[in-house]
Amino acid sequence: MPKSNAPSRRRSFHAANVAVIGLGRFGTSLALELVNGGHQVLGIDSDEKVVQSLAGQLTHVVAADTTDEETLKELGLADLDCAVVAIGADLEASILTTSLLLQLGVKQLWAKANSAAHGKILNQLGAHHVIFPEYEMGRRVAHMVTGESLDYVQIDEDFVMVKVICPQSFDGQTLAELKIRSNYEVTVVAVNHGNGLYEPAFPETELKVGDLLVVAGRKQPLDEFVQLQ
Ligand code: ATP
Question: 170-189 in b/e burial notation, b at 16+ Cβ within 10 A?
Answer without folding.
Answer: beeebbeebebeeebebebe
